[in-house]
UniProtKB/TrEMBL annotation, chains A, B:
It comes from Paraliobacillus quinghaiensis. Keywords: DNA-binding, Transcription, Transcription regulation. Residues 4-57 form the HTH lacI-type domain. One of its GO terms (molecular function) is DNA-binding transcription factor activity. This is LacI family transcriptional regulator.
Length: 340, 340
DNA sequence: TTGACTTAGTTAAACGTTTACGTAAGTAAT
DNA sequence: ATTACTTACGTAAACGTTTAACTAAGTCAA
């Protein structure tokens, strides 16, 4: 039931070379034979074997994406952006859930190597020496998504998290808040969590507000549970906060839920701004004001860069995507009219 | 920099056949040569070319997963279940976001065909004649996930949505509610939306509550926006409801948000139960009581079945996964003590 | 009429594996 | 000493393509 190029050739009374050329739109055949061959292909329902093609062309039209365990929407949006442009150029994506584990990551890299993927996208993970040199030895392009590396010359696409943190905090300040808390992810996560915190501090300083360590809390991760923990300690340590910048939407929702527990109304008693603008931001109560990362576009961009590098064999410049505040109902203005 | 089996053979002073046999753990070589070859492999950093292997073995260790555009968490959980067991058996998954489009789906099927994947998982989509016969002609196993087909003998894994709807509704009844609304997805979605509604009706009838069409609303989809729409019309048509069964968590959150708009407290004035038990259920305010589908397990099961079928060449029995109510805070009991 | 080009093909090697088959050396039994 | 088996390999075909190199026929100009 499965036909090969030979079957087509035999049935059309030509050589397999001719069939191949027709398939690949090279020249060396008449209109007539082309039509004939095409008809036979149609009749047989023949589809070329991508494996055989891959073997000889050294190109598999497949890219690998390494995804650590991210919260649902986040990963899906990035992935669907990647998948979309990958599909447009006629390739496919192999997903690998690394769960932040180094061993798993290396195992996946090996599989991707054996499968001879044309490129690799690393999502949101630190590029270790081990990973880098392995991919380097595969000599295929890679790009980092929601991450970056200063050690290695690997192009990345992300938003400027420091700037994002700054914008979020400034937004709160512009709304009249001066007593602003911070809930962020891990203090070890220099790439993201710490960056956002830096932006927070910078905004305070630029507006002559003292940075108070008591108002800042770091957690294990960016998750809801962390938000709960974080907000609890914040409520103890700094009960007179009027606003908090949560470095992820999940953190923000966690914070809001403990605010309720402490009988504080959001946003009347305490304002909360999130980060990521995931789908759940609009579904929360109150709807969450959040710093939006264009995740879908970022995924798409990363894929584009990958294919660009395949073409050009050169390193594509990195890309900082714009962020944006999506105003909803979780921030209360302490002024009659906003500044600016 | 990229070595082949020939390089290994040459360097170890054996034939490629021997290397191959060692790699595949067949016999026909001495302990000594094995050690030698293994050492050379290590030295060269050789990894077998899966493409070449695929060509001759007619097995690619790759499965395709067709995902319609599902809300983030839903898709991610299924996918990660699938990916996990796929990885365990040494295969990879190619994801295809079909966005519910027939043309795109067919295009993907062709790509998967050309890439000679070993199996296909269809998520949550109706299996049309076209899809079915195409995959049939590829003669590889397929399984349906969160879906089923009565036309074709294709194994599936899903929960019994009718039963799920029944359980949810019964839960409300057991909590003393008799005036219960329904917000579901599309009326055309016979596989899921309608099933849950049927379960709802059955539970009412079994408890001697009249089914009232006014208390039921169908929407375009299972999304937040649909929940808002649905709840609005429900509030108009049936203002004296004390509880509503929303056929998805997003619908439930939409419903809750309009409840707030109408100044109804949840759950004191109106109880809401959701379906899916996505991550956002625990993060909502109030935390959402929901019918849980073991999505991760379902994905894993589907993948297991796929590999089982590859082995056995037979059709594996379908699998109905258990559902379960996860009690949180969005349902209020109207009785002093619960029945049962 | 010849030579130079062009057109429309064919043949066969190559891609990197696996594996059926062949074989030479060693061992065991008679 | 011969036969029969076993062990430890090597040889070469095969998987389904692409493509470089070749060829035969036709066209055109001088």
């Amino acid at each position: 039931m499965k036909h090969t190029i030979k079957d087509v050739a035999k049935r059309a009374n030509v050589s397999i070379a001719t069939v191949s050329r027709i398939l690949n739109e090279k020249d060396g055949y008449s209109e007539d034979t082309k039509e004939m061959v095409l008809r036979v292909i149609e009749e047989l329902g023949y589809h070329p074997n991508a494996i055989a093609r891959g073997l000889i062309n050294n190109k598999t039209h497949t890219v690998g994406v390494l995804v650590p365990s991210l919260t649902g929407t986040f990963a899906t949006e990035l992935l669907s952006g990647i998948e979309q442009v990958t599909h447009e150029v006629g390739s496919n994506v192999i997903v690998c859930y690394t769960e932040f584990q180094g061993v798993k990551t290396m195992k996946y890299l090996q599989m991707l190597n054996e499968k001879r993927v044309d490129g690799i996208i690393f999502i949101s993970a630190e590029l270790t020496e081990e990973y880098y040199s392995y991919v380097e030895s595969m000599s295929i392009p890679m790009v980092l998504l929601c991450s970056e590396s200063d050690k290695y010359q690997v192009p990345y696409v992300r938003v400027n998290d420091r700037a994002g943190g700054y914008t979020a905090t400034k937004y709160l300040i512009d709304n009249g808040h001066r007593n602003i808390g911070l809930i962020s992810g891990s203090e070890d996560d220099v790439l993201t969590s710490v960056q956002r915190a830096e932006g927070y501090k910078a905004a305070l300083i630029d507006h002559n507000i003292a940075v108070n360590e008591n108002n800042m809390v770091f957690n294990d991760d960016f998750l809801f549970e962390d938000g709960i923990q974080g907000m609890k300690t914040l409520m103890e340590r700094a009960p007179d906060l009027t606003a908090v910048f949560a470095a992820s939407d999940e953190l923000a929702l966690g914070a809001i839920s403990v605010a309720y527990q402490y009988n504080k109304r959001v946003p009347e008693d305490i304002s909360v701004i999130g980060y990521d603008n995931l789908r759940l931001a609009e579904m929360s109560h109150p709807p969450l004001t959040s710093v939006s990362q264009p995740l879908n576009d970022m995924g798409a961009k990363a894929a584009q860069m990958l294919f660009e590098m395949q073409e050009s064999k050169m390193i594509t410049p990195s890309c900082i995507m714009p962020h944006q505040i999506i105003e909803r109902k979780s921030v209360h203005s302490l002024k009659d009219f906003k500044k600016k």
